[in-house]
């Protein structure tokens, strides 16, 4: 079985000498499978890298015309760190994780200070000891995205076509295909719709249009430089001695504030009740006045921190949600969803981007195992391997939010650890590549 050969051959170990000199990236035999990936977010980029590693031919199509450094804080758990660690710059011993690390928050010294909304410090949650095999990355989404995007384009030289909006997905017996807004048609053995929460690919896969629903919450969020923060003696301390991370938790609201890149950048998110609107956008302008209203009766430090935000950096993001989709793979078995198009996450899970990456690792391995003549079995095996895990991780977004928003403060006083940010081993200890290699043989057989 191919999976066993890889496990025993040690290729999955990032420290294998063949990978240190970068050659293992190209040592997998070519499969001849042509894959079109729609969307160059983290999901699409990771799928492209992993498909390239597994010997497939990949092309990416993306609607944005040029790369822009968009978004604010994004989290990658240890289960993403294991994946990033295996991505070498070809011909060198440099890993993509070496490039991501300087952009990310460092909390070994500081940990996470959790406060009750009135300001009382409830506990300091220590960061787990760093695991060099499974680093954690929390940083600016746009900066991290640019790093991975440039790796795909410049280092791996995977073709990316920008400014291509896909208007239609279709399938025949022998192909899957996309239609661009220019009228151009592109076909391949497999099409992966990594096209985000507003996925167009979902229509083909499900056979109907799936509407998002409101999660009942919205998030004010901002990222800005520390200029005004260090002018104020009360807020200066968050930017002086390296990075910091503080949270304030109240009924139906939580406020998280961190400083990043040695305290030079500041970022906060405020999750609060909001039923008003359903919009799947990242860039709604927000108003500081509206944020202050949420903070009535709260620790005055919260308002003080927020007041340093340039108003044009403030975003009001309505959090939409979707129930788990019945399936991620089309009837014909040549088109599938991946990442947010298949499974949007609430930010409180801190796993949305990481789960999109695990998808990419898994699908690339399934396609290699099944081969060009049985790609439908590969796609169905991919769904089979990923579905329940994704659903369980998705639920942690709700459970963490509810644990905070419905905190019983008398109970928390007796056991402050009950309010800790959960870091569950079944999520973070998972190695998507090792797991897929172990189960792929049986999974593909089941659908062949
Ligand atoms: C602009 C932006 C900002 C974000 N900011 C944050 C953030 O600050 N924090 C955070 O936690 N998460 C953020 N996210 C979401 C986060 O990136 C995803 O949840 C996660 O990384 C999973 O990624 P994905 O690749 O599945 O989806 P996405 O990152 O949404 O990527 C989907 C890609 O598909 C492209 N696309 C969509 N439709 C088409 C089409 N018809 N034709 C061609 N291309 C298409 C989109 O332009 C996009 O680049 C942001 C996403 C976007 C797009
Ligand atoms: C971090 O910032 C402090 C000032 O706040 C500075 O003294 C220190 O040298 C910086 N460290 C690094 C590694 O840049």
UniProtKB/TrEMBL annotation:
Residues 182-393 form the FAD-binding domain. It comes from the Eukaryota. GO terms for molecular function: FAD binding; monooxygenase activity. Keywords: FAD, Flavoprotein, Monooxygenase, Oxidoreductase. Residues 1-26 are annotated as: Disordered. It holds the Pfam family FAD_binding_3. Belongs to the paxM FAD-dependent monooxygenase family. This is FAD-binding domain-containing protein. It comes from Saxophila tyrrhenica.
């Amino acid at each position: 079985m191919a999976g066993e050969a890889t496990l025993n051959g040690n290729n999955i170990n990032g420290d294998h000498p063949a990978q240190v000199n970068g050659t293992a990236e190209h040592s997998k035999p070519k499969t001849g499978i042509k894959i079109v990936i729609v969307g160059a977010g983290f999901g699409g980029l990771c799928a492209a890298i992993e498909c390239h590693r597994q010997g497939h031919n990949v092309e990416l199509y993306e609607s944005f015309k040029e790369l822009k450094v968009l978004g604010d804080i994004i989290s990658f758990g240890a289960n993403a760190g294991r994946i990033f660690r295996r991505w070498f710059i070809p011909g060198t011993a440099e890993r993509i994780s070496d490039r991501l690390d300087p952009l990310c928050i460092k909390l070994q010294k500081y940990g996470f200070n959790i406060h009750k909304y009135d300001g009382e410090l409830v506990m300091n949650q220590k960061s787990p000891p760093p695991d060099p095999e499974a680093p954690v990355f929390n940083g600016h989404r746009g900066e991290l995205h640019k790093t991975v995007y440039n790796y795909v384009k410049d280092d791996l030289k995977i073709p990316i076509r920008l400014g291509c909006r896909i208007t239609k997905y279709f399938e025949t017996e022998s192909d899957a295909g996309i239609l661009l807004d220019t009228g151009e048609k592109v076909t391949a053995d497999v099409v992966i719709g990594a096209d985000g929460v507003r996925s167009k690919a979902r229509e083909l896969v499900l056979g109907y249009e799936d509407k998002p629903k409101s999660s009942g919450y919205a998030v004010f969020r901002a990222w800005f430089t520390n200029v005004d923060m260090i002018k104020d003696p009360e807020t200066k301390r968050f930017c002086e001695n390296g990075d910091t991370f503080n949270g304030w938790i109240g009924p139906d609201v939580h406020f998280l504030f961190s400083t990043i890149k040695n305290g030079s950048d500041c970022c906060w998110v405020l999750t609060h009740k909001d039923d008003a609107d359903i919009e799947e956008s990242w860039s709604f302008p927000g108003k500081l006045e509206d944020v202050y209203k949420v903070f009535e009766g709260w620790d005055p430090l919260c308002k003080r921190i927020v007041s340093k935000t340039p108003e044009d950096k403030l975003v009001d993001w309505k959090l939409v949600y979707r129930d788990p989709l019945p399936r991620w793979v089309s009837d014909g078995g040549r088109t599938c969803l991946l990442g947010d198009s298949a499974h949007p996450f609430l930010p409180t899970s801190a796993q949305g981007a990481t789960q999109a990456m695990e998808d990419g690792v898994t699908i690339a391995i399934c396609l290699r195992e099944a081969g060009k003549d049985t790609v439908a079995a590969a796609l169905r095996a991919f769904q089979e391997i990923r579905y329940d895990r994704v659903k369980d991780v998705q639920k942690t977004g709700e459970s963490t939010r509810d644990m905070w928003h419905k905190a019983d403060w008398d109970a928390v006083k007796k056991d402050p650890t009950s309010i800790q940010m959960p870091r569950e081993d079944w999520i973070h200890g998972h190695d998507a590549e090792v797991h897929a290699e172990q189960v792929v043989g049986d999974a593909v057989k089941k659908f062949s």
